[in-house]
Design brief:
Two copies of one chain form a homodimer. With 568 residues, chain A is an alpha+beta fold. Chain A has helices at residues 33-41, 68-78, 87-92, 99-106, 123-135, 192-200, 218-224, 231-234, 237-240, 267-271, 305-316, 330-338, 346-364, 384-400, 408-416, 423-429, 447-465, 499-517, 535-554, and strands spanning 83-84, 116-118, 139-143, 163-167, 174-178, 183-187, 204-205, 241-248, 251-255, 280-287, 289-290, 294-302, 324-328, 374-382, 404-407, 433-443, 470-476, 482-492. In chain A, helix 2 packs antiparallel against helix 5 (123-135). The model of chain A has no long low-confidence stretch (mean pLDDT 95). Chains A and B meet through strand 9, helix 10, strand 11, strand 16 and strand 18 of A and strand 9, helix 10, strand 11, strand 16 and strand 18 of B. Chains A, B: Substrate binds at residue 425.
Chain lengths: 568, 568
């Protein structure tokens, strides 16, 4: 089947940051935000001048290293319209949206860019380009939605060979839905919203909604082992992607979408998470579900983190199966409240008054509503009967663990703004402030230890750096054996020259704590280069040796996204 | 920790067949069995002499090829008591319980036996033995419960190097239970019943009950990607085993029992299903669950297979989450009824009358109660409220799909005798009859096609062979995207000389049909050598190349269970 769009039509981030050109975080309509920023990291927004957007014309862009003969050979495969090597495209495809990438791209650190971007229209074109890559000893980096925050799509600055970025965005179709089996064959380059739109039109959903949803693709999710916020019900991408096709240097790998994968070591699970080092994923067969008749997000409040975690654990051990369960800790709850817009309608003003009254009441009961109180959201889906029954059970569990039910109002607000968070990092960078995230999977019995030790490590690192810092955290993605802890941190950096060193000081403190306790190096952000330093500790020496052997065996020339996941 | 038992205390099969010496299938107390055997495969049990058990003394056993110096080196590691090279032990450890293995062992086909059996007491001993194996170019085959029906523990008759079988049976302890996380660290050599006993004592269950439960181990389940009959609730072994330790030629591989495995290609999923080719699994961290307060197995009857499958599919799409769902087709239902014991109690006689009356009523409604009617079992676990609610929903679904609810009586009978089936194959071999099983995972949309085409292929192969045959099937292990179809077949072979050729005529017809339709080469019986011929078709050429590369990279000397899963 021919691709539905040309290269020029494929959605892309603004060159210097997340998402659309004309969308940005607005602090002025959120009265709680500026005071919190001032208190926690000394950022006084009211005295700051309006930020100026970076201009690509200010920065020199090095010439492409792609040989004209090689360029012609690739154009022969995909057509002239589907190879791009103009400056903006090369910049956009050379940086993911990790904090270091955002910092570097804004500062025009274009030491090594990809040399061209190829937009194949089908699997045959992917295979033909891959053959050229091997034959001419080029480097190939797959590109999905460009939202990777672990550096997996960023070229190695020491790479001397010409580097191609392969944007799968033209391969964006749902090819087939098997209604009986609840399975859909989907091209790897389809973005989240396009995928859901095509599925929804037939009454289906895949239910995979990572924060990056608007700027990420099925192939990217599979290649980096993504998890969506609704994974409690729909599963992580490893559960959702049942079969796939990947163009490998020696041919096409295809894994069957059948239950009970019982044929030796899992090729499927070698490809998932391979981040382009084994080949290019071109198609996935994914589980799809009928859109639930009823969906509700209910908000709850606990007096503190320990009570909240006990509640979350009790829900996971109950007979209730929510779509998602999420608990913000005290600092994150305060941050969330600081993001609430100033009410403009009468209804909104009344609601704000009601909230003030509630918080006063809670304080009278001994709650610390500023620093300790924890908000929680639970999403229920299914028949009306099921949603009502499960809500009643969860309400009891929350109450038994010292919490109260706030209701559907705040839940609906949370649900609507869930994809807006990534814009905040660009906003903070305008003011020389780093805001970033680190997450890990940990067992239920170690969640509190991870939580407190990560805080300790972060604030110790900030103290050593001599500057302020702010951290908050939520628990999400509940499993039988544990859950994900998702930390967000922010601090002002002191100078452009030392900025990345300051960033890694904080980031590394957090990551090393994860690994020291035995929790995961990453829960769903992949490895790339940002998490690579901990892979040997995470996998152990022999596990790392197995992965290295896998890469060396399948890509002896190191042409496929070399250096990602593990060095060499 | 030191091993709790010596080699001599480790449970083992009788040398020539399944399980205990004094347990055998008894047809005389089952009035329906002999007539069915006569009708379907021309076996008239009433005219047959009583079978004579084979005697090991009748068969010459070749001398061990293990060099005395190597033997001494191994004894130095594990102690004299924990290396066995007497005839019976060597025979027991040289054959799994596949049909070809059972046939060969009964006939004393001892061309190539393992040369010694080593029983390590801990992981260090496993590692020390593995080093000796590599150093002296020996061959090592791991041995769990010896119930493998795909030939994975059977030595290659052309192997010239000395062959060690490593029996993990001394490593049989639950080491630690993390109550909060619902995770237990378990040594790989623990048998199913011993494991459940240790877990039950603390109020936990793993919920993994394959047919082979009494003669299989955690390590064996992990190494062959086992599924238990309760996988709808508890998951296949891939979901249950969250972390593991494996002794690899270069060190110990350990995978962490954390949720959200997001660190590159999955080492964990390379080890699962590796059948000894990458190393020896010594420990698993498994999900455990509190024993459900209420458990009920309810039986249902459908007029035919198509109605039954529609019912099963509707249950899988409902909000009910049973512990297992199972549907026997018409022939298997008839077979099950033929296994019912003659009632001796008054209560039993009344129940039989009630059943006769019910079947007469169903015939009056147009049901074919002999050939078409399909029995189904659904297991419900949880609180009383949940079990009652789910039973009510399933009852409605069954009714809507043309079936009726029989109730808890037949369900309880099914539940009690579920581990007895393996004895039947030995019984049939006494009369020169092969009885065996083939199973596959298939999508919901192809289940009926697989079902009818496998029947066609099997009966065509029997017709070509010129002899009678009987086949029946059930559906079990329900997933979002599909289910397992489990076929049983039987036929009398004509002579010892042609027996295995006749066997493969039937088996291959079934297996090739699986692969031609695109369903799995095996759902949960592993690959070994019996399913190896279809692996290349199942994985595709490039997938097979990846697996071969994995084995070659990690075991370049081919010392670890060589030839299993894939040749070379």
């Amino acid at each position: 089947m021919s691709a539905s769009v040309d290269a020029g039509d494929v959605k892309r981030h603004k060159w210097w940051g997340w998402g659309l050109d004309d969308v940005a975080f607005n602090w002025r309509n959120k009265p709680g935000f500026a005071p919190l920023a001032d208190e926690k990291i000394g950022l006084d927004l009211r005295t700051m001048p309006d930020p100026v957007e970076p201009d690509l014309a200010d920065f020199p862009v090095p010439a492409t290293r792609l040989d004209p003969a090689h360029r012609a050979a690739i154009v022969h495969v995909v057509g002239e319209a589907n190879l791009r090597d103009d400056d903006e495209y090369r910049v956009v495809h050379s940086f993911g949206r990790s904090l270091p990438d955002l910092f570097r791209v804004r500062h025009g650190d274009f030491t090594r860019l990809v040399d061209a971007i190829v937009y194949p229209g089908d699997e045959d074109e992917v295979a033909a380009v891959l053959r050229l890559v091997i034959e001419h000893d080029l480097v190939l980096i797959p590109y999905g939605g460009g939202s990777c925050i672990s550096g997996s799509l960023t070229p190695d600055i020491s790479e001397q060979r010409p580097i191609l970025s392969m944007n799968l965005g033209r391969m964006d179709r749902v090819l087939e839905i098997d209604d009986t089996s609840g399975l859909a064959r989907v091209q790897a380059g389809v973005y989240g919203p396009d995928l859901e739109e095509q599925l929804n039109a037939e009454g289906w959903t895949m239910g995979h909604f990572p924060d990056s949803f608007t700027y990420s693709t099925v192939g990217g999710w599979a290649a980096t082992r993504s998890s969506g916020m609704q994974s409690d019900k729909y599963g992580d991408i490893e559960q959702i992607v049942r079969g796939l096709r990947m163009v490998h240097p020696d041919g096409v790998v295809r894994t069957k979408a059948i239950p009970g994968r019982d044929a030796g070591p899992s090729v499927h699970e070698m490809v998932l998470g391979s981040e382009g080092r084994l080949g290019i994923i071109t198609e996935c067969t994914v589980q799809v579900h009928r859109i639930a008749p009823v969906r509700q997000v209910i908000a709850y409040m606990y007096p503190d983190w320990e009570h909240g975690i006990r509640g979350m654990h009790a829900i996971s051990r109950s007979e209730v199966k929510p779509t998602f369960t999420r608990l913000s800790d005290g600092p994150e709850t305060r941050f969330s409240l600081a993001l609430v817009k100033e009410p403009s309608s009468t209804k909104g003003k009344v609601a704000a008054k009601v909230q003030d009254g509630l918080f006063a009441y809670l304080r009278s009961k001994g709650w610390d509503t500023t620093e300790e109180m924890c908000i929680s959201y639970v999403c229920f889906e299914g028949s009306k009967e099921r949603v009502e029954r499960e809500k009643a059970i969860v309400k009891k569990i929350v109450s038994r663990n010292g919490g109260i039910t706030l209701g559907a109002g705040p839940g609906a607000v949370y649900d609507q703004k869930k994809f807006d968070t990534p814009y905040l990092r660009d906003f903070l960078l305008n003011y020389q402030v780093f805001g970033d995230v680190c997450e890990t999977g940990a067992s239920w019995s170690t969640l509190n230890e991870v939580h407190s030790k990560v805080y300790d490590a972060y604030y110790r690192s900030r103290k050593e750096a001599g500057g302020p810092g702010f951290m908050f955290c939520h628990m999400s993605h509940s499993y039988h054996g544990g859950a994900c802890l998702y930390f967000t941190f922010a601090f002002p950096y002191t100078s452009d020259e030392t900025a990345l060193e300051e960033y890694y000081g904080a980031k590394n403190a957090v990551q090393q704590t994860f690994v020291d306790i035995g929790s995961g190096v990453s829960h769903h952000h992949g490895v790339g280069v940002e998490h690579r330093p901990w892979m040997e500790q995470d996998l152990g020496e022999t596990g790392a040796r197995m992965i290295r052997g896998l890469f060396a065996d399948n890509d002896p020339g190191r042409n496929l996204n070399p250096g990602k996941v593990l060095e060499p």
